[in-house]
Amino acid sequence: MAVLSVRGVTKRYGRLTAVDEVSFEAQPGRILGFLGPNGAGKTSTIRMIAHILLPDEGEVLYGGRPVGPRSQRQMGYLPEERGLYQKMKVWDQLCYLAALKGLSRARVKEQVTHWAERFGLEDRLQSKTRALSKGMQQKMQFVVTILGAPSLLILDEPFGGLDPINSELLRGIIEELKDEGCTILFASHRMEQVEQLCDDICLIARGRVLINGALRDIKKSYGRDTLHLGFDGDGAFLRPFERAGRIEVKSRSAEGMVLKLNDDKVPRTILETIMSQGVSFYRFELAEPTLNEIFIREVEGS
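Above: the chain sequence. Below: its structure as tokens.
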């Protein structure tokens, strides 16, 4: 059963329809990537889920009941616009925000101490927030979000400001929370992170849903129309295929090319050409398109 159900939700601001009959579900123990270009209606939808905004039409259900103050107490929401009290000490602020979630004094101390240690904040607990780097403040904001063990997490660009080491730390903790049965709504413009973390995706543009479903099934539906080709030389042997429109070069690098295939017979012909011309190659891999490529195709097509 879905923990979160968004059903035909519409939100208007004057004459602008920012969200237009959007529907999707988020399942327990799964991560849903909520995607879209700037201005797609993601933030308005997230705020309706968090009961900050009310929909003009449709409904948002949490645990089978309309969202409201009850559901807010069971959610952890990390907005893209961060909000910390810069003049407060880290310990005081974490304890204060944990207490606002209804935790007992003993539970507040236990949770704050545990997560501060997990995120490497234990040496900064008596520092004022403004003395922390952007990355440290981001980790602190995430701790605030997960205090109280919410059953639904809404994470809007959670990796912003983090270096690769701390990004990996955060990713591991998100996966731990998922394994514990938490439902996670993950909004990001970083398609490689979405592809690594998410089980399902919902892509919207101009306020409407373009794609919704399991990421594995969505990728399979596009077929293996991408060729990763690693070779030595300038790639002149590919020019006749390109001129004939049988391939499109999506990217070039020192390691070779990534090609979009417009003809399902062309991989065999390219391989025969490589062999007949004696081209030195070390990679020939047919693959599904990346999520980034799917995103671009669908949004531009809409």
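The chain has a mean pLDDT of 92.
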